[in-house]
Amino acid sequence: MELIAGVDEAGRGPLAGPVVAAAVILPENHRIEGLADSKKLSEKIREKLFDKINTQALSVGVGIVDRDEIDRTNILKATHKAMFKALGSLKPQPVKALIDGYALPNQIIPNEGIIHGDDLIDSIKAASIIAKVVRDRIMKQYDIIFPAYGFAQHKGYGTKKHIEQLIEQKATPIHRQTFNPVPEHLPTIQWLKKNKKVGYFGERLAALDLYKKGYKIISLNHHCAPYGEIDIVAEKANEIIFVEVKTAASKTMGNVENQVNASKIKKLTNAINKYLMDNDVKKDIRLDVYAITIKKNGPRMKHFKGIEIE
């Protein structure tokens, strides 16, 4: 059979988060019922179809382009790049691609744009669902890191609540700085200091760095009474990591060993043991430390892995 991929994207319009594209090659006689434009399906149905597509498709490819590249180029170029990445990860490669909307420029694989393709072509419908579910899961992780903004609900779109929090809390590192009204609400070092947000901001930077490294973020500022709080709890494979974050603004952090001394490690150990008991953790554990300096030209970050605990 001739291998033809359907391609669609999610996330062109939001004020925050990445743009995600998916490419899907379906068997000619697939048995996936209920395929439709992802925007016309409930979250529950999308999740079920997501699993069916990944099980029955001949190949599924995903491309993700983050906020920084969206700002550096523009959303159209970023969307095209996400689609290129999605198509490039298909195995086997298709002989043709059908793109929701307009054809892709400069693509080695011959392609055709299909207006309203996510209503007409099953493989494009499937790609629409894959892209939407992948992006929604990313935004739910961002919601754990930045709970005030409501990312799990609006997925970064400019809802009333989102704009209100953007004005009050200022923009996060995942906000698109070229999308209005984000440029009017970027936090300055002075604002972080005045509002006592330096430590809070550093913890979010560390959590984002961990997420980009493939860790799942479980919680931030997890309180373990009476021993204090754990800045970040994350997991990867069969390991839970507990993270202490030390942040300074416009000055040198100094040696991290001076920031996390024996007394602090003892408190962290007690808090970690409390967390392990409360959550019946069976996985391996690790204590990491981030040392972050926030400067005008961007943050400087050091990640120290495997700090010895008592």
Strand arrangement in the largest pleated sheet: 3-2-1-4-5
**Low-pLDDT regions:** none
N- to C-terminal distance = 61 Å
Rg over CA atoms, rounded to whole Å, is 22 Å
What is the count of structural domains? 2
Report on the biggest sheet: 5 strands, mixed
Q: Percent of residues in beta strands?
A: 15-25%
> What is the CATH homologous superfamily assignment of the largest domain?
Ribonuclease H-like superfamily/Ribonuclease H
By DSSP, the count of extended strands is 10
Element-level helix/strand string: EEHEHHEEHHHHHHEEEHHEE
State the CATH class of the largest domain: Alpha Beta
- Helix fraction by DSSP (H/I, runs of at least 4): 25-40%
Concise structural overview:
With 310 residues, the chain is an alpha/beta fold. It has 11 helices and 10 strands.
How would you characterize this protein structure?
This protein has a five-stranded mixed beta sheet. The mean pLDDT is 94. It has helices spanning 43-56, 67-72, 75-88, 117-120, 122-145, 151-154, 160-169, 189-194, 198-212, 256-259, 262-279, and strands at 4-10, 19-25, 59-65, 96-100, 111-114, 216-223, 229-236, 239-249, 284-294, 300-304. A hairpin with a 2-residue loop joins strand 7 (229-236) and strand 8 (239-249). It is α/β, with parallel strands linked by helices. The N and C termini lie far apart (61 Å). The protein folds into two domains: 4-140, Ribonuclease H-like superfamily/Ribonuclease H (Nucleotidyltransferase, domain 5, 2-Layer Sandwich), CATH 3.30.420; 187-304, Trna Endonuclease, Chain: A, domain 1 (3-Layer(aba) Sandwich), CATH 3.40.1350.
